[in-house]
Amino acid sequence: MENSQLPAFSVSDFVASTNQTLEYAYPTVVVEGEVESFKVNQGKFVFFNLKDAGASIGCFMMVFALRVPLEDGMKVAVRARPKLTNFGKFSLTVDAIKPVGEGSIKKGFELLKAKLDAEGLFAPERKRLLPTIPRTVGIISSMQSAGYGDFMKIANERWGGVEFKVYHTLVQGLDAPEAMVRAIEYFNQLETPLDALVIIRGGGSTDDLSAFNDEQLVRSIAASRTPTLVGVGHEVDVTLSDLAADVRAATPSNAAQLLLPDKREVSTRVKSLASRLAPRMVQLILQRAEYVQGLRLEMYRKISSQLEQVEVRVGQHARLLESYNPAHVLARGYALVRGDAKPGGMIEVESSTYTLTAEVKSYDKK
Prior knowledge:
Main location: cytoplasm
Largest sheet: 5 strands, mixed, barrel
Domain Exonuclease VII large subunit C-terminal: 121-299
Number of helices: 9
GO biological process, one term: DNA catabolic process
Order of helices and strands: HEEEEEHEHEHEHEHEHHHEEE
CATH architecture of the largest domain: 3-Layer(aba) Sandwich
Protein name: Exodeoxyribonuclease 7 large subunit
Radius of gyration: 51 Å
Oligomer: single chain
Structural class: alpha/beta
CATH superfamily of the largest domain: Response regulator
Strand order of the largest sheet: 1-2-3-5-4
Strand content: 15-25%
Shape: rod-shaped
GO cellular component, one term: exodeoxyribonuclease VII complex
């Protein structure tokens, strides 16, 4: 070569040097384009091309990192590391991917929805009720978001004494789904279970809310041991996370309303119940008093009747006993003889008017 000052490489060294340069200049890039030639090999390796009107580049990723269904023609954004292979092919090694553009986002949404629905993740019978008055609540949200502020404001206005455990996390972007999955895992591993787990985020574009259509996040919500309440976006926004949750709220503010009773409404209801209950209690007391009085009178009548019957029987027995009184026999002219009724024996004769002593001279047996 005429120019000896030019750098000289072996093929392997040049590929390695190029990759070092790429790693230094572009350690991680986000590239948008249209998917073509999508395929999965051996159930774990994903290959596709990413193209636009002027160029195309090959992409590779592991199937576990593919968290949304893909089809040729979908527009996506990938987070990847550029690399020159040993065979001279320039490619992107992808670690995250999401649909972009309303059409692609909707397509990915419908594909994943059909898949998860077929598995029963959205079935009404697996939904759990939220506790009437939760004591400990986990919150997954960005603490800087307006949605979080709205939720906390309304929650504190509606009810007091609730312990909120907040896990501050991303709620938008490629890293958001994994961050929210970690938050769910954290709360589910607490030694003392929560009463409810709330995932909230304010409104945004379809692309802003796409993190809540991530397959792993949706599965984590469905598998949570703690009852889940998801309030994302506005009333018209419905994500797959909403469908997987035990309870779906239209907005973060609505999530607070569904989670906690209004203390003013409860107070009014209690007063109303008390005002209706007081007359009823008085009525019940009067009814019971009347019932007790009736029992008392009935008992008195029964005791009186029994006493009268006893009195009659005692009178009858008294008259019978009186009829056996010797004094009555003596009064009719008879005499009562006591003693040894033998010749020479002494006897005592008692009448109603006198008593005499006599000696028996003789007696005849009958």
